[in-house]
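Sanity check

After download, print the first record. It should look like this:
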Amino acid sequence: MDSFGKVSIITPSYNCAAYVGETIESILAQTYQDWELLITDDCSTDDSRDVIKSYADKDPRIRLLCLDKNSGAGVARNNSIKDARGRYIAFCDSDDRWTPEKLEKQLRFMRQNDCAMSYTSYMTCDENGEPEGIVVCRHRETLRSAMRDDKIGCLTVVYDTEKVGKVYMPRLRKRQDWAMKLLVLQKCREARGIKEPLAWYRLRSDSISRNKRSLIKYNIAVYREIFGWSGLRSTLFFLVFFSPSYILKKLGLKYINQ
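Expected structure tokens:
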């Protein structure tokens, strides 16, 4: 098997004891084995740390890091990125999982296309892991297209630190993953997608991303944080460009998954 360099897999954890074992097992099952898994626990109140530690004790590639106070997924991810030693940075949340060939296929694709950031389509499932649908990515995303709507699933993202350096997530409580992708695209201008679904995204009733109305102010905050726009300009851009693009995306996904 080709060697592409070490991959640092970034996983935030908060009260995911019921799912994080599946996440870790999907990483262990990768056909590409040159990776490290950095899981930062955000002060879980369930048995998440015990579950993670049971895996870390058996495999030195898995590292459990812990925050002193609950700070959100963005801070947890940044804590892992800070300690990452791999050439590539990849993301998989503690309730999601990957297909076995994800890393191998994605890294080969990145080498063949000389791209700094890649992503893939992904499947969705319910809380019990039962399939629900598919989110099909586009072949190419640019800074301009990503500004209009976040069409890249964070659980599928891999970026190359040799091309763009380490890119951290802004200190936003929500939508910080979209902001991070915009920061990467400011450096590389283009990301490339693989149509094949190579990950599973778990739809949970208690997820903060399920309430889309509550995310509106954070979407607007991303424009202010990343581009330095005024509140008025950010709001107008959201209403004129983001909202229509988001609605069309959702209609398209509904049609595909009928």
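If your output differs, re-run the checksum step. Summary of this record's structure: The first helix runs from residue 20 to 28.
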